[in-house]
Task: inverse folding
């Protein structure tokens, strides 16, 4: 069965573009436009990987990462998370550390603008790593 | 002899740190004593010049001092024109204001001399005697002399007040400017972020189109889209530079500092440099000591600085030329040198290369003109220095960029 990827981003054009890229390689794609919808989607869709934007209204990517640390979400602890961010990886990490006092436990970062080839390569690697684990 | 002593004491007090009130009080007291008078006072014109107000007194009762306002009217016209005036019997002189108070206070004669400050009468000094007294010329000169010392004391006080006021205003202006500067960089950073998001989305769509994720494109369409994509990349780089500048200017670099391993920074920069150098056909030489210290700094920023200088050197050096990175680990600082055999920098532009948006007159490649400003900002945030030399002193060719980062960490 095709791997299912959840794309959480408030920019509808980014959701559209990523969906086109991912579907072209046979992935099944579901989307959410903020952190709260993203968490709801996790429960109903049980995706194999999540692409998470950091800056979003309602609940942002930092909020989602914080929420997922709770034991209630233990079933998703092995799910790879690819953070996509408009700011640098360093800055994202530092902000999360400052706010929560813990390291941002994302599996990989991809800086916007997202290049389709790089995105696909990263996803392939993350899913492979998960399957081997 | 006694007069000289009064002058000497007054001058000493003026040059001391005593308050103006204390100085004036001592002046009127010693004047009255030196001249064997009942009392003495120094009166100053009010700002509207309509009244004379007691500034310092000696030998006068509170009742007398508070008798009421003294009007700067024609009864004082002589003094206010700058001439000394002697009133032999003040108690019976209708021209003297409050002359009936004089009797009760036990005053008979009054000597009044002007207090002159920058050629302008600003008040007067009065000496009161219980007995009728004709003051000698010598006594009048003495009181005039003391009055001018009083003016000097007042001048000193006013200058001091003006300077402190100016200083206070300068400090207010300075902090307002700093505030406005912060606001401006905050605005710049907000604007840059808002520009970056839609441009990133456009770039992603270009990636989708050019990556063949939609219908097949003609060669002409691909060519046009690639040109668009290049332009967007340049815009995104400019925005990212602007964001860097506003972060540096708002002091954010300091918050990123921690102990960093210098070797990692250098290795990563050299790796990027080697890729660029091989592509361009330029030789990249390195001269790095085996033992490198840890530094206290913003690791990724320092790496950007070094990568930027190496990449610049390669960009401005023709194929066949060479770029050299040298690191000197001295007692208090690490010195980084990036030299090349490239086009160099015209001498008159050497001090301008770090300015925002500056592009060298001999430079043909495109760029934002912000790279070296960012580099300088990062080095400065670390307490280091950066400068450029052209031609490079060792080879007589190209140019050389040198920067230093002060050491705080331990050797490794």
Result:
């Amino acid at each position: 069965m095709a791997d299912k990827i959840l794309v959480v981003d408030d920019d509808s054009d980014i959701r559209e573009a990523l969906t086109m890229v991912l579907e072209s390689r046979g992935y099944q794609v579901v989307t959410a436009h903020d952190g709260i919808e993203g968490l709801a989607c996790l429960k109903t869709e049980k995706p194999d990987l999540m692409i998470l934007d950091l800056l979003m209204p309602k609940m942002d990517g930092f909020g989602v990462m914080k929420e997922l640390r709770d034991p209630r979400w233990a079933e998703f602890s092995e799910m790879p998370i690819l953070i996509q961010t408009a700011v640098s990886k360093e800055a994202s990490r530092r902000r999360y550390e400052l706010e929560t006092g813990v390291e941002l436990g994302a599996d990989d970062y991809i800086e916007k603008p997202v290049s389709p080839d790089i995105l696909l390569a990263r996803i392939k690697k993350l899913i492979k790593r998960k399957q081997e684990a | 002899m006694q007069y000289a002593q009064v002058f000497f004491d007054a001058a000493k007090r003026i040059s001391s740190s005593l308050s103006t009130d204390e100085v004036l009080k001592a002046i009127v007291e010693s004047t009255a004593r030196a001249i064997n008078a009942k009392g003495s006072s120094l009166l100053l014109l009010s700002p509207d010049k309509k009244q004379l107000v007691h500034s310092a007194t000696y030998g006068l009762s509170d009742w007398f001092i508070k008798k009421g306002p003294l009007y700067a009217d024609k009864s004082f016209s002589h003094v206010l024109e700058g001439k000394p005036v002697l009133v032999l019997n003040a108690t019976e002189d209708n021209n003297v204001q409050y002359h009936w108070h004089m009797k009760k206070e036990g005053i008979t004669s009054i000597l009044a001399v002007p207090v002159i400050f920058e050629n302008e009468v600003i008040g007067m000094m009065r000496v009161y005697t219980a007995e009728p007294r004709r003051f000698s010329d010598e006594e009048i000169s003495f009181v005039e002399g003391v009055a001018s010392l009083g003016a000097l004391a007042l001048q000193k006080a006013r200058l001091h007040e003006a300077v402190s006021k100016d200083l206070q205003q300068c400090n207010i202006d300075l902090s307002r400017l700093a505030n406005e500067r912060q606001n401006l960089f905050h605005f710049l950073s907000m604007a840059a972020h808002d520009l970056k998001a839609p441009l990133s989305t456009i770039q992603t769509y270009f990636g989708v189109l050019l990556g063949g994720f939609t219908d097949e494109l003609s060669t002409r369409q691909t060519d046009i889209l690639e040109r668009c994509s290049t332009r967007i990349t340049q815009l995104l780089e400019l925005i990212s530079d602007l964001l860097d500048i506003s972060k540096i200017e708002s002091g954010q670099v300091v918050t990123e500092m921690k102990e960093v391993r210098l070797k990692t920074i250098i290795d990563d920069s050299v790796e990027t440099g080697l890729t660029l150098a091989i592509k361009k056909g330029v030789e990249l030489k390195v001269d790095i000591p085996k033992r490198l210290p840890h530094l206290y700094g913003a690791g990724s920023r320092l790496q950007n600085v070094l990568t930027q200088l190496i990449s610049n050197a390669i960009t401005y050096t023709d194929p066949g030329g060479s770029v050299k990175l040298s690191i000197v680990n001295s007692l208090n600082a690490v010195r980084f040198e990036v030299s090349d055999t490239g086009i160099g920098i015209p001498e008159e532009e050497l001090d301008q290369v770090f300015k925002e948006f500056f592009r060298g007159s001999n430079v043909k490649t495109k760029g934002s003109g912000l790279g070296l400003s960012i580099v300088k900002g990062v080095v400065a945030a670390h307490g280091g220095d950066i400068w450029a030399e052209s031609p490079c002193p060792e080879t007589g060719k190209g140019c050389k960029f040198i920067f230093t980062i002060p050491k705080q960490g331990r050797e490794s």
